[in-house]
Amino acid sequence: MGEILFHLFIACGLGIFYVEATNINTTRMTDVIGAAGFPKAIILLALVLTLLSLYITFKKYMENYDKGEKQSVHSLNVQFFGIIIAVVAFIIITSFLGFVFSAILLMISIMFILGQKSIKKVFFISLVTSMTFTLVFGKLLHVPLPRGISFIKELSFLIY
Amino acid sequence: MMDTSLFFQAIDLVFTPFNLSMIVGGMLLGVFFGALPGISSSMGIVLMIPFTYYMGIMPSVILLVALYAGSAYGGSITAIMFNTPGTPEAVATTFDGYPMAKKGEAGKALGLAMTASAAGSIFSILVMLMLSPTLSKIALKIQSAEYFALTLLGIACISSVGSKNLIKALITGCIGILIAMIGLDPMSGVSRLTFDKIDLLGGVEFIPVMIGAFAMAEILKQVVDKATSEGFEGSEKISLATIKFKEFMQYKWTVLKSSIIGTAIGILPGTGGSIASIVSYGEAVRSCHNKEDFGSGKPEGIIAPEAANNAAAGGAMIPTLVLGIPGSPTTAIILAALVLQGLQPGPQLMTEQPLMLYAIFFSMLIASIIVFFGGRVAVKAFAAVLKLPYSILASIIVMFSIIGSYAIGNDMYQVWVMLGFGIFGFFMKQYDFSPATLILGLVLGKMMEENFRRQLLLTNGDYNSFVTRPISLVILLFVALVLFYPAIAKLFKKKQK
């Protein structure tokens, strides 16, 4: 069932892109197919292939359903959602806490989510890895990492 | 043909302690930059350019080309270890490299990649040394119709051999091409598919998409799989044993064939290693008796793309230096760096400064030989990383993914893109859609559209021009063969029964 829903998701996405492609300004085109021609052709081709694949998937699903076979589907677990939430939280808080602190918090949370029990290990690895990333990318490669606000910003200048 | 007196003069020029240290340093930096997703070889070269201001022309050029040679190998390291290609050229390496590492043979996989990379690179440089004047003349005959056909061939090959389901692979290939079209139209400058979002005007960067669809999606998949199976503890089964040279020699024909494919495709301006590695992987699958073993850690599946993409990196230097047309973003930056040093790449470089040209090729040759012999030490260090518990490894990969995406545009928008494609990539993996075709579509989409439209513009809308040009026709026939051969073969088998 998940596969059918995923096909429908793709088909809807392609539909939205097609509507957007019809809004492309083609009044001043010099070439034969214009700026909208190629995207529209690709979307239509993708749509036809998606519907064909959906038909095959649906047929297979119905055959299995009639036979009473249950398809083995991995259910999404707490860890799956935990990691996504941790990354989303990192993106949001990094502009306030700066890169170093956010990275430490992210690493701690991922290690706990994935069942690492040793608290000492979790804190040590998070600290060392985050500092290494900060120094390599911030200092050595001059990537302008987020610095956070207020005193955290002042602190960050001491590191990178 | 090669001028031997110039070749020996080039050896004299390069063999000074300072120049040799530049080669070793450049090669090591290249491996490092190539291995970091998001910190590409082009970024590595850009970062090194300020240092070259204070050097002479020769050492600075040597440093940059050695870095370029090293990065072509570095891209395979994370592809094998974490299913995260450091560069788009290493996408095909994930097909068999990662399964081999997962089976506990990370050392062997890295050893195969390294040796094949070095062999491919050495082959292409020898070809460059001997044939650069002749090959540059042939490359000039390739025009828009042929480029369009070549991009089609790349996507057809990856859909046909690099995925479990052809239709689903073609769907993701189309999605990749569609994403490549977001932003300003290259011919008219009007905005397309941007949904009035300013962030999308500049297009979608392929690095965050690539990191998301491969690395993040793989983490999410492992998290779901491991929770129901072995858990998140480290694996004790991982072997650090690399491959012996004698063992490697049994794949000599795969290496030779892939090196020829890589060099030939690399010579064409604007193509590069992505197509070369996919076409070469496809050829390895086609010519093998046990096709079903591919995708589960077959040595030829690592050797073919690695030898080809490194050979293409060498081959791409021919149009860059001899024609002044860069074959990839990285060679474009090398071109800019050479101009900064007062050199003028193009046909006159061959006539006015042939010694410089030979010295450049010779430096790349030494860097590749160093990879061939010295890389074995590095292999063990990289493979040992896989012994870490998955909870630690996953958190490090997530950090890599975040910073690799962030570094592309220095803003968190790229991290959102990475996360979005991570979730999309997870479901793609679950339902046998191919993330590799998505990336190849994204990388080749612009080139495909531009050449298609340019050809129509040049021929006043004559669609037949794609099949009336002999080289284009041959490539298109090959595309049809790649796409329809499995179905036709199946039909014949059914009829015979």
Describe this structure as you would to a colleague:
- The complex is a heterodimer of chains A (160) and B (497).
- With 160 residues, chain A is mainly alpha-helical.
- Chain A contains five helices and no strands.
- Chain A has helices spanning 2-22, 34-67, 78-113, 119-140, 150-159.
- The radius of gyration of chain A is 24 Å and the shape is flat.
- Chain A starts with a helix and ends with a helix.
- Chain B has one domain.
- Chain B has a two-stranded antiparallel ribbon.
- Chain B has helices spanning 4-14, 17-35, 41-52, 57-82, 91-102, 106-139, 144-161, 166-180, 206-228, 245-248, 252-267, 273-286, 299-315, 317-323, 329-340, 347-352, 354-384, 390-409, 413-430, 435-458, 465-468, 470-496; strands at residues 183-184, 191-192.
- Chain B has 497 residues and is mainly α.
- In chain B, strand 1 and strand 2 (191-192) form a beta hairpin.
- The longest helix of chain B is centred in the first third of the chain and has 34 residues, at 106-139.
- Chains A and B meet through helix 1, helix 2, helix 3 and helix 4 of A and helix 8, strand 2, helix 9, helix 18 and helix 19 of B.
Tags for this model:
heterodimer; A: 160 residues; mainly alpha; 2 domains; 5 helices; 0% strand; flat; B: 497 residues; two-stranded antiparallel ribbon; 22 helices; globular
Annotate the secondary structure layout.
The complex is a heterodimer of chains A (160) and B (497).
Chain A: H1 2-22, H2 34-67, H3 78-113, H4 119-140, H5 150-159
Chain B: H1 4-14, H2 17-35, H3 41-52, H4 57-82, H5 91-102, H6 106-139, H7 144-161, H8 166-180, E1 183-184, E2 191-192, H9 206-228, H10 245-248, H11 252-267, H12 273-286, H13 299-315, H14 317-323, H15 329-340, H16 347-352, H17 354-384, H18 390-409, H19 413-430, H20 435-458, H21 465-468, H22 470-496
Antiparallel strand pairs in B: 1-2
Helix pairs in contact in B: 1-17, 2-3, 2-4, 2-17, 3-4, 3-15, 4-5, 4-6, 4-13, 4-15, 4-17, 5-6, 5-13, 6-11, 6-13, 6-14, 6-17, 7-8, 7-12, 7-20, 7-22, 8-20, 9-18, 9-19, 9-20, 11-12, 11-13, 12-13, 18-19
